[in-house]
Design brief:
The chain contains ten helices and five strands. It is an alpha+beta fold.
């Protein structure tokens, strides 16, 4: 028997590739990459801020979210599962429904509480809204609306300590209680004006917290 016949039969090398899911464009890929830490976050507010900050520099329309949801559904992983959970809770409209069709929304649910307004429109040209919310722990959001520029929101940020935020705002002028629906109606109009003027110069945190504001406006109106 020849040596050639004694040689073991070599099997062809098969390259096993990991599934890549539905393709993402560069902007969508960047957002998904920025959310890689979601599985380690136990605080729902921190998870919201992570996703909202991730889309601060992009136009996140329905087509944009459709691509991300489709990708996350087609490529199961801990990160994509948590991303879908947060999107199912955080987004509004049809994108929220698409994510909620795949997973249950992030828990616990969000509730809205009291709201206060500090009106400096007469002497300083702006008014400030402080709105209270709660998952398990309470938090607030502060919004400064520029009345001199047509009512565009200029600043927005999250306040972990609502009592401290009230005390500091009271140093700028008297605070008055305002109904949650009335407060969020002002916010909705303010963000609509910003949408009509996307090049308006606003604080970076307005972009970073935009999804949070959208969810809370939607919540206030049921």
């Amino acid at each position: 028997m020849s040596r050639q016949k004694l040689r073991p039969t070599r099997r062809p090398i098969v390259v096993v590739r990991r599934p890549q899911g539905s393709p993402l464009n560069p902007a969508q890929r960047a957002v998904v990459d920025r959310c890689r830490g979601l599985p380690q976050l136990t605080d729902p507010l921190a998870a919201e801020l992570t996703v909202s900050t991730a889309v601060a520099d992009v136009v996140a329309d329905e087509e944009f979210w459709a691509g991300i949801v489709t990708h996350a559904v087609s490529l199961p992983s801990r990160r994509n599962h948590r991303l879908l959970q947060v999107l199912a809770a955080l987004l509004t409209g049809r994108p929220r429904e698409w994510a909620a069709d795949a997973v249950s929304p992030e828990q616990p649910p969000l509730t809205a509480g009291c709201a206060w307004v500090c009106d400096r429109s007469v002497d300083a040209g702006y008014l400030v809204l402080l709105c209270e919310y709660r998952f398990v722990d309470e938090h607030g959001m502060v919004f400064m609306i520029d009345e001199l520029s047509g009512g565009v929101v200029r600043k927005a940020f999250v306040a972990r300590d609502v009592a401290l935020a009230r005390a500091r705002l009271a140093g700028y002028g008297p605070l008055s209680a305002i109904g949650a629906e009335a407060a969020h109606w002002l916010l909705a109009k303010s963000y609509e004006r910003l949408d009509r003027n996307p090049d308006a110069r606003v604080d970076a945190d307005v972009r970073r917290t935009r999804l949070l504001a959208n969810r809370r406006i939607s919540l206030a109106f049921g």
